[in-house]
Amino acid sequence: MSTYLRTPDAIKSEVQNRYGQVADENLQVAAAGSCCGPSSGAGSSGDSCCSPSDSSSCGSPLYLGEDLTELPEAAVASSRGCGNPQTIAGLKAGEVVLDLGSGGGLDVLLAARQVGPTGFVYGVDMTDKMLELARANAAKIGATNVEFRKGELENLPLPDNSVDVIISNCVVNLSPEKENALSEAYRVLKPGGRLAISDIVVDGDLSGFPVSEAQIRAGLSWAGCIAGALTIDQFTGLLESAGFGEIDIEIQHRYNLDDFLGELPTELSSLEPTVVQELVGRFTSSAVRAQK
Questions:
Q1: Domains along the chain?
Q2: What is the pLDDT of residues 47-76, one digit of tens each?
Q3: DSSP letters of 126-176?
């Protein structure tokens, strides 16, 4: 079925199934009671992005600058991000933060450290198993300035003008209704509040290839964060429509074939390698910043 013909409910179901499986795997880790230490490899260097691949430690190499010690192993291992929003958000003590698609809670727990006891961090996720995992991870380290709520990006369970900063890690691309998701983000931000997220963004467009954009997107996975990626111009336009200003989209990593591993459909993998590399290279991990 073409990506463009998938209903929003079908896309959400695909995403929930994928990340529910991730949560199930890591709930077992959480039950074991272990935490990441300096020798665990959780903070090892590397440029791999976890959205195209499905490595069990995929998000952790992107947090090289963060202290992942004393965090539950399940929070680190369940990360499925494409960047590190901590490095672009510039969080300050006392701020109220919202993490969209909070997963196993890694970014919430890291943000909670930065905003301190006078600040607070909300995590919103639509997958029950991920919420169970995140709450278990927060309880394990005694985090008291965090709360995880069930909800969808298109209908956030927070009041108007209630948060200072919105972060997320490779989540907006998962929404089948991005205009609504960004409008909701704008609604819950306080005046002067800021959006600081990592996301997969297409540099330029997906034209000029032997296969059409529709064929390209139809063969890619929504749950893998690439089929639903916006172009830079599309992302900018939707942010402007939602009311945001001071918009900046900075490319941080351009993908290569190794990043995509088995995600390429037959229609694409059968093309000349140079053509496939050019196509893959248009997908980027980018920092997206905007202000209300």
A1: 3-291 (3.40.50.150)
A2: 223 333 333 344 556 787 788 878 877 777
A3: S-HHHHHHHHHHHHHTT--SEEEEE-BTTB-SS-TT-EEEEEEES-GGG-S
